[in-house]
């Protein structure tokens, strides 16, 4: 689902979004930003708290639990399918540069980005190059004083005093459970998308975005009409909107295209359902799939009624 005709916000930067951390928070954030057509890279190599777990038992959708290796694979597959690039490299430093950020990695990569999402539960030392001591706090450890990232630094929506820097983790709201971290990643990504829409010229009442896919039957005759959407859009434009009428018209038509594309017909819904289930099978061990198939076939054979002839 595209946010604009062009995939990159500004040619001044290598990427629209850099995400540091490829766990539940980082991958979820990446799914949302990439689906809005923001060019997103996720750096994932470091101390991962989720990979220290033995099994994930309380993430909805997995009633028998799920092993961490399969779960991590699903996270990365989803982020990649949404359009993210995942790079196995450790971010060592982050600095301001030309209205955005410059990211330096352990393997010698240097990437610039308009916006950055911090999504690593542990650490935060790479943020020191931003030179804001307010994001660090002193604490006692093993009889001495140490400094660590202040989990209260970001607001509830992930925004920070540094424009373009968003924090999903370390965060007081997201550090204890995978499902909470994933939700935090989504919330922060929506804040980032709102900022991107604001920069693109959307009026403030229209910066919010919902990433929904709906049944075409829910559209109705009234909302099938582009003029009805134009009216809805124009009603929310404030009187003090300061962009040109041509830019406003361009944004209006893009938004209508996006809204209408979110409604899908029954055949497309069925196609996506099958595609989704087949994609899940790719993450299941082949022997388990074959064993389940044999059990299904055996169940079908046993359910076939065998006619009995009582005539002797």
Automatic annotation (TrEMBL):
Residues 16-120 form the FAD/NAD(P)-binding domain. Keywords: Flavoprotein, Oxidoreductase. SUPFAM superfamilies: FAD/NAD(P)-binding domain (SSF51905). It holds the Pfam family Pyr_redox_2. The keyword Phosphoprotein does not apply. InterPro entries: FAD/NAD-bd_sf (IPR036188), FAD/NAD-binding_dom (IPR023753), Ferredoxin-NADP_redctase_2 (IPR050097). GO terms for molecular function: oxidoreductase activity. PANTHER family: THIOREDOXIN REDUCTASE 1-RELATED-RELATED (PTHR48105). This is NAD(P)/FAD-dependent oxidoreductase.
């Amino acid at each position: 689902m595209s946010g604009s005709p062009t995939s990159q916000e500004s040619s001044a930067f290598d990427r629209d979004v850099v995400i540091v951390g490829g766990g539940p928070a980082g991958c979820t954030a990446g799914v949302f930003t990439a689906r809005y057509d923001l060019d997103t890279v996720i750096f994932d190599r470091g101390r991962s708290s989720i990979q220290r777990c033995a099994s994930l038992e309380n993430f909805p959708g997995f009633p028998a639990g799920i092993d961490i290796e399969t779960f991590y694979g699903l996270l990365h597959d989803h982020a990649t399918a949404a359009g993210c690039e995942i790079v196995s490299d450790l971010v060592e430093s982050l600095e301001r540069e030309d209205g955005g950020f410059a990211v330096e990695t352990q393997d010698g990569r240097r990437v610039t980005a308009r916006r950055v999402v911090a999504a690593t539960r542990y650490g935060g030392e790479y943020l020191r190059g931003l030179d804001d001591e307010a994001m660090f706090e002193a604490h006692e450890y093993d009889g001495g004083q140490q400094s660590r990232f202040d989990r209260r630094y970001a607001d509830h929506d992930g925004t920070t005093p540094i424009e373009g820097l968003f924090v999903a983790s370390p965060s007081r709201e997201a550090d204890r459970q995978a499902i909470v971290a994933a939700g935090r990643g989504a919330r922060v990504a929506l804040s980032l998308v709102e900022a991107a829409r604001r920069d693109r010229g959307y009026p403030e009442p229209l910066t919010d975005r919902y990433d929904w896919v709906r049944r075409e039957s829910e559209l109705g005759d009234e909302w099938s009409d582009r003029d009805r959407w134009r009216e809805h859009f124009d009603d929310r434009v404030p009187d003090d909107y300061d962009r040109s009428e041509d830019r406003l018209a361009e944004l209006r038509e893009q938004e209508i295209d996006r809204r209408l594309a979110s409604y899908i017909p029954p055949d497309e819904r069925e196609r996506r359902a099958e595609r989704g289930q087949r994609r899940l099978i790719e993450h299941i061990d082949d022997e388990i799939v074959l064993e389940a198939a044999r059990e299904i076939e055996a169940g079908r054979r046993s359910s076939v009624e065998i006619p009995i002839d009582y005539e002797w």
